[in-house]
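Pipeline run #58 for the internal structure catalog. This entry was flagged by the ingest filter as a single-chain record with no existing model, so it goes straight to prediction. Upstream metadata was stripped on purpose; only the residue string is passed forward. Reviewer on rotation: M.T. Logging verbosity set to normal.
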Amino acid sequence: MDKSNENKSVQEDQTNAGIRRSHGEFVRGVSGFRDAIGDPDFPAEFGRYHLFVALNCPWCHRVVLARNLLGLQKSITMDIAFPNRTEEIDPEGPNLWEFNPERISTLTGETLPECTAETGTGQGFRLAKDIYSAEGSNEQSVPILYDKIAKRIVSNESADIIRMFDRHAAALNSGLTEGMRPVLCPVDPDVKTHIDALNELIYNTINNGAYKAGFSSDQSIYTTAYKAYFETLEHLNALLSDGRPFLTGEKFNEADLRLFPTLYRHDPVYYVRMKLNGAKVFDYQHIWRWLCRVYALDGVAESSSLIHCRQGYFGRSWNGIIPAGPQMPMPYPEAYQHPELANERSERS
């Protein structure tokens, strides 16, 4: 696949981005750091690399999933930001990712045990912004893949980081043998073509599409994104209706990994926050069973946190009050352990 096609599943077209934003469209920016493990400056070595992530962020969720599924927890160290960014009163300004394990969650009334201080750079930075500033960049986003030896950012593009981890899992000294860990991007050209096509569809209508719907301030743009989101769910539900366990067949791969973070958030968060209230995931029986199947894989359940997700999405929007539910058909994420909850409805026409 050529680079122009690949970009459609990695980043959004930036044509007239400023004008589109002024008209109410959410336009995601472009990641500025695009080096790779395996480049001459960044050799694949055990213990050399570090991740900065936020568990509520779906783009971070991708890379943590890859890290866990590929057995790289000991090789790739990691710091976790608090799910709410800084507030207006912060001396550095609002809306910045912060590594502060002492912050209190308004949802739980306590600190969040997953949150850490910043340990990757050796500088003890409080803000992700400071990691970028050390390299002369004004970017602020997570995830960040960092080289602890070179003291440099390698990449902040989640799609690229997934493929680095997959390609170099053995050289990074994965804790899983070759036969035990998944191959996220197989070399078989037919399978890879299928994965690439799914990635493009999923990125545009589901991953980024959720943000297009939820953050739009124009009704027609919202409606277009909403329709595309649920049309793709129908398509994927039909794809899985032949009994295949995963999107391209018998084996879990990158397409499954990239779909999972959005659908993991759909029922408990996006249904309300992103105004995607057309249906719950369990209304799509084949997708629900797929979601439960992926959730059951080793390393998946601990790759994110719905407490972080609910705190991060609702705790910094509207009036900051976090919805208590959903409680039906049962609380989440416990529901993901119950494939039998799938709504046994007739397939929609």
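catalog note: The mean pLDDT is 91.
catalog note: The longest helix spans residues 189-214.
status: ready for reviewer M.T.
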